[in-house]
Each structure stands twice: as C-alpha cells, then as structure tokens.
Write a structure and sequence with these properties.
250 residues, alpha/beta, Rossmann fold, 9-stranded mixed β-sheet, 9 helices, globular, ubiquinone, Ubiquinone/menaquinone biosynthesis C-methylase UbiE, Methyltransf_11, methyltransferase, SAM-dependent_MTases_sf
Length: 250
C-alpha cells in the first residue's frame, strides 16, 4: 500500500508547485479559466448550476443527442474508455476535462490503491463537485490548463479526454501535450466531434459547431493526428456526430 496520499503523489508529477483548493490542487489561481473561451458550451461548464445536473441529466442527454440512438450511454462510455486504456493495478491515469469526476472515479477503481487517477479540469465548480463525491483513495483532482498540461514528461500510463477536445482553442497543441506526458507504450482514448461526409449534413454540423463554439473534426482527422505523433494500434468508433479514437504510443 502506498504511504503517500493520492494528492501527494500527484504533486510529485507536476512541473510546478500547486496550491491546495477546495479538495483539489490549483494551478490557475484567480483566473476564470485557462486560455480563451471558445463559446457558449465552454462558458456553461464554469457555472455553479451545471455541475449539479451534469452527470445525471446534462451529459447523458447531450451525449444521446450527439451520438444518436445507437451510441453508447454515459455508463457505456466509462466502460469502453476503461477497457481501451487497458488499465491495470498500479497504473497512473489522467482524465483530462474530468468534469464532476465520473470517469476519474472509475479509473481510480481500476488502478487500485497502488495506482493514481488524476482528474484535471479548469472549472472550480466542476472540481468542487468532483472532490465532494465518494472517491477511491487513488483519486486526486487538479485545476489546471488542459491544453498545456503541467505534468512532467512520460509520467502517466493512460490519458482520457472525453467530450472536450472540440472545445479547446488549440486542440493540436493539446494532442502534443497528451503525447508528451504519456510513457512509451501508454494508451490514449478520446471522444470528440465527427463531421459526416454528406455535404448537407457537413454544412449543418459546421454551423452548429460555430454557434456553440465547438470545432467539428472530420472523420479520420483525429486518427491521422495521433499517427503523426507516434501512436499505433489506433481504433475508431463513430456514432452520430461523435468519434471515439484510441491508440498506443510507440
């Protein structure tokens, strides 16, 4: 059994000291968020109301609308992410844009007491709700920049980023950062937007993305970006206007 707490072990992975917040470590201080706001959806994440209904209502309903009737439920997403990351006891998993911690808690259970599951988000309200949940002892939360990760190089075994990459102002920079903090052989899984090839649908989906401040990636675009960064064993799953892409860093 580890002698240090999950938060203490997280501190050892950071490349800069963090202050203790409301149940989490904080690297953003008084800043409302890291980087520029990209639209309405991202601004909603910072409100105090949304975290109260995020896991139970908002995220499942929004996910179903975007994934369509054949896409996985939120619980199904958690199971799939955990499987694709191939988490083992003792691993270190990073949940980027963790929200209220649904995935982080599952990862904490998968890696066990000897492992570490880090939930990273920029919203105080989300992290406050996450820290107030019943979390495994292996879970720690961090308020920080999700695009320029403040972790040392090659420090985590797995990176998950669900329903967030399309809201980042610099998604390609974020992918660089994800690859940098992963150990060789580490795994990544992403859920993000996927614009369809049929032209009328592409136009409508692009307009919807502009209005909500979300980037609409093309199908195959994320997989190609991962290959360019040295990832292999890449898999792609599409549902509605979403894609789940996973891979292993060579």
């Amino acid at each position: 059994m580890p002698t240090k707490t999950a938060t203490e072990r997280l501190e050892a992975l950071l490349d800069t000291p963090a202050k203790t917040g409301d149940g989490y470590l904080d690297l953003l201080g008084t800043a409302a968020q890291a980087g520029p706001a990209t639209g309405l959806t991202q601004r909603l994440m910072r409100t105090t109301l949304l975290p109260q209904v995020y896991e139970r209502l908002w995220r499942p309903a929004l996910g179903r609308a975007l994934k369509g009737p054949l896409g996985p439920s939120m619980a199904g997403e958690v199971r799939l992410a955990t499987k694709l990351l191939a988490l083992r006891p003792g691993d270190t998993a990073l949940d980027v844009a963790c929200g209220t911690g649904r995935f982080t808690r599952a990862f904490g259970a998968a890696v066990g007491p000897a492992g570490l599951a880090v939930g990273l988000d920029g919203a105080r309200s989300m992290l406050g709700k996450a820290a107030a949940q019943t979390n495994p002892d292996s879970v720690a939360y961090l308020r920080a920049d999700a695009v320029h990760l403040p972790l040392k190089e090659s420090t985590v075994d797995a990176v998950c980023c669900f329903a967030a990459l399309h809201m980042f102002a610099e998604p390609e920079t974020a992918l660089d950062s994800f690859a940098r903090v992963l150990k060789p052989g580490g795994r990544i899984v992403l859920l993000t937007s996927a614009r369809r090839g049929w032209q009328p649908a592409r136009v409508a989906e692009s307009v919807g993305g502009i209005l909500s401040g979300q980037r609409m990636f093309d199908r195959g675009e994320i997989a190609a970006s991962l290959r360019a960064r040295g990832f292999a064993e890449i898999t792609e799953r599409y549902a509605g206007v979403t894609q789940i892409v996973a891979g292993r860093l060579s």
